[in-house]
Design brief:
The complex is a heterodimer of chains A (391) and B (240). Chain A has 12 helices and 15 strands. Chain A is an alpha/beta fold and 391 residues long. In chain A, strands 2-1-4-5-6-7 form a 6-stranded antiparallel sheet. In chain A, strands 8-12-13-3-14-15 form a 6-stranded mixed sheet. In chain A, strands 9-10-11 form a 3-stranded antiparallel sheet, covered by helices on one side. The chains are: A alpha/beta (391), B alpha/beta (240). Chains A and B meet through α8 and α10 of A and α7 of B.
């Protein structure tokens, strides 16, 4: 089960956009155009799939908590729509759609389900509209999550709902990856900001084969080995706060007796690589997830290599796994194989009214001809692909 | 004095590791190596000998007389262009019909161009001319060295790591299947073609470079060329 289409209406800067997704989905664009809003809209839909949309449910999925006035589309000269509508569709014609309400003036802790539609291959599982809702149902409780109990585990409808429920937006930060700052949203295999990376990587090492591990460690060319350890006493100052387990790196250039260092002292780029690898490859990762600013702290050539490996890693972790990510480093584009229909690049821009517009960049004959002269990174920086600020 | 800056154009990342290891033995001071090819932002070039060929053809489009003259490659003290000698057995058609047509239209030198091996040098010599023709230059600049290690660069790895009686040493420079043989060794001796494992073994290539030179005629030639480059370039170069 994979999401093939997402429709977002009335959410933050997105008035009405439909996005056809692949396995690897890269969103580029100027700062503030609404890239993260796309990721967050799916997070809100994930909360709805779990039956409740409130601050706790959305924050747990990596969505920034916000008041209805910030969540609903608001543009000058246009009325604010009363609800947000979000829809996910799969290739097997399974649909989950909700319209969510929350008054602007006196916001409620939880959003109400104005409408809810859940169907698979012509079979209607939930169809709840304004007029059909006469049974004194709790309007803040989603019905689809309840119906899930009665569905077979391999039912496409069940798979869609579970995938949405598990969705999360990861935004790694260096202190959490180093294990010196706690992660308030811990999950398996890693927390939303990178907590528990040592445990996640150790678990991964136990399950993947040597080729797979090599494909990860090849990207960190200064190390000969990486492992998790609970006894970092000799490697780490007592003044440094630490998690139970810390990552230990073996530096291939250093003298054998003094060639180990922990995540606290290691290059942050290595930590971001391991973070992405664990998320893509681990069986415990969500089947759909997003990474905001995947290119953080990475050298351009390294990020190109990392991006090129994502489709293979995702397939190895789970044949149905999907990734959405945002990036700012042009070198990201050079790692995308746009001839692979499963790898998709989206330009995110604001139109003249300020609405977020999302456009898939496909390899046209013209673009291919240009690409023979210039790498995609250059074409983006030159403005040929759009998705650049007019500054 | 600043460290020597070395630009490497290689068939693949593991070749880069072994050539860098050889240079560590040949250059007396630490240096800064930059891999120009394979280069991920130019996916059209690809890896392998096709990547080296395309890199050279791209260079030729600039119309420069030597790598040292290209303003896109500023500040390098040494250029090393690598190609395995098994390329002498290839055809341009092996890289696709587009390359075949390009080779015909640009009148690139004929492939295959191999001679009986041993000696490996008989096939390596015409390839040297091929590289010049691909790059559109008549002669190498004073800071450029061609590196044609054998039919497969892994020969240097074998030469550096096995005992004298090891059967893999027989016809080593003429064995294009050496990579597959290293992979099929018993588990404790198996060498997989990964950057991680090559990094681990690269130290042996540096440490035992004298043995590699003795066992591989083309390693000896590369050593001589690096030394000659040092002699002709004078003070800036630091070759032994």
């Amino acid at each position: 089960m994979r999401l093939c289409e997402i429709q977002i209406k009335g959410f933050k800067s997105i008035v009405d956009q439909t996005i056809a997704l692949g396995r690897v989905n890269c969103f580029i664009g100027a700062n503030g155009v609404g890239k993260s809003n796309v990721l967050e809209a799916i997070g809100v839909l994930g909360a709805a799939a779990s039956g409740r949309v409130d601050a706790e449910a959305i924050v747990r999925r990596g969505v920034r908590a916000g008041l209805p006035r910030l969540f609903k589309t608001s543009f000058s000269g246009k009325p604010i729509p009363p609800h947000i509508t979000l829809e996910a569709r799969t290739e097997s014609s399974t649909t989950f759609r909700v319209s969510l309400l929350n008054p602007l003036g006196r916001p409620e802790p939880a959003w109400s389900f104005k409408t809810e539609y859940f169907a698979s291959g012509g079979r209607e599982i939930v169809s709840r509209g304004v007029r059909s809702d006469k049974e004194n149902l709790d309007p803040t409780a989603g019905l689809s999550a309840l119906k899930l109990v009665g569905l077979q585990a391999d039912d496409p409808a069940s798979l869609l709902l579970k995938a949405l429920q598990g969705y999360a937006i990861y935004t790694p930060n260096t202190p959490a990856l180093r294990g010196t700052m706690p992660d308030s949203q811990m999950r398996a295999p890693v927390g939303l900001v990178g907590g528990g990376l040592a445990e996640g990587f150790e678990a991964l090492k136990r399950t993947v084969d040597e080729d797979c591990l090599d494909s990860v460690l090849d990207l960190v060319d200064w190390v000969s080995d990486v492992s998790g350890t609970e006894s970092a006493g000799a490697l780490l100052s007592p003044a440094v706060p630490r998690a139970k387990q810390v990552l230990k790196f073996t530096d291939r250039f250093m003298a054998a007796s003094r060639n180990t260092l922990t995540a606290y002292d290691a290059s942050e780029g290595a930590l971001y690589i391991l973070f992405a690898a664990v998320l893509c490859l681990s069986s415990a990762s969500p089947s759909i997830f997003a990474i905001d600013n995947l290119d953080s702290s990475l050298n351009p050539r390294l990020v190109t290599r990392l991006i090129a490996r994502l489709p293979e890693w995702l397939r190895a972790g789970n044949p149905e796994r999907q990734l959405l990510f945002t990036a700012h480093n042009p070198a990201v584009l050079d790692g995308l194989d746009l001839d692979d229909q499963e790898v998709r690049l989206f330009a995110v821009e604001r139109n003249s009214q300020g609405h977020t517009a999302i456009r898939r960049i496909e390899v046209s004959p013209d673009l291919r001809a240009l690409n023979e002269q210039y790498p995609l990174s250059r074409l983006w920086a030159m403005g040929h692909l759009g998705a650049v600020p007019n500054v | 004095m600043s460290e020597l800056r070395v630009a490497l154009v290689a068939e693949g990342p593991t070749d880069f590791i072994l050539i860098e290891a050889a240079l560590k033995a040949l250059l007396p001071a630490p240096f800064l190596a930059t891999r120009l090819q394979p280069e991920p932002t130019r996916p059209k070039f690809g890896e392998g000998w096709g990547g080296v060929l395309r890199w050279c053809l791209d260079f030729a489009s600039g119309g420069h007389a030597a790598f040292e003259d290209d303003p896109r490659l500023p500040g390098f003290d040494l250029f090393v262009i690598h190609l395995d000698v098994d390329v002498a057995e290839m055809t341009y058609g092996d890289l696709g019909t587009e390359m075949q047509s390009l080779a015909e239209s640009r009148q690139l030198p004929r492939l295959p161009c191999h001679s009986p091996c041993p000696p490996a040098t008989d096939s390596a010599t015409p390839l040297r001319t091929h590289i010049l023709a691909w790059a559109g230059i008549n002669r190498l600049g004073s800071r450029t060295v061609l590196c044609l290690p054998s039919k497969a660069t892994e020969a240097w790895l074998v030469a550096a790591t096995v005992m004298d009686a090891d059967p893999m040493l027989a016809g080593l420079e003429c064995n294009s299947r050496i990579g597959a043989q290293l992979l099929s060794l018993p588990r404790t001796r198996r060498i997989r073609k990964t950057q991680r494992q090559y990094h681990e073994l690269a130290g042996d290539v540096t440490k035992h470079w004298d043995i590699v030179r003795r066992r591989c005629s083309l390693a000896e030639q590369f050593s001589t060329d690096i030394a000659a480059m040092g002699a002709s370039a004078g003070g800036r170069s630091a070759a032994r």
